[in-house]
Amino acid sequence: xxxxxxxxxxxxxxxxxxxxxxxxxxxxxxxxxxxxxxxxxxxxxxxxxxxxxxxxxxxxxxxxxxxxxxxxxxxxxxxxxxxxxxxxxxxxxxxxxxxxxxxxxxxxxxxxxxxxxxxxxxxxxxxxxxxxxxxxxxxxxxxx
Length: 144
Ligand SMILES: [Zn+2]
Ligand SMILES: [Zn+2]
Description:
The structure is a single chain. This protein is of the alpha+beta class and 144 residues long. The chain contains four helices and five strands; from the N terminus they run ββαβββααα. Helix 2 runs antiparallel to helix 3 (106-121). One zinc ion is lined by residues 43, 62, 64-65, 67, 77, 79-80.
């Protein structure tokens, strides 16, 4: 079956019930993203031109962060994934930081424990990391 977009290459992927070759599928997915105004957090490789040195690889661009690199069209953008990982790591560090008035302010203590619980619920922290942070905060208080 031929690609429904370029009519040249063999269709290997489906997107919204149509059949596309690899680069056309990435283009079609990006068109759908724009058409529906979807805000992606992690972009993907949208092909710009074929890479002359490597078969099946294309110069691609990520329309979310602007990265350009050679890859298989449609794969997740490495830079968006790194930005996301950094953001998650920063959120985890913030969540683990106990409030300064932890021991004098029950409300601050409750808020911190809520923040840790939320971080565990959304998968930023593991339960063990949250427990360790609490244990450490109270050990420091006892030795102070
Ligand atoms: Zn095609
Ligand atoms: Zn990106």
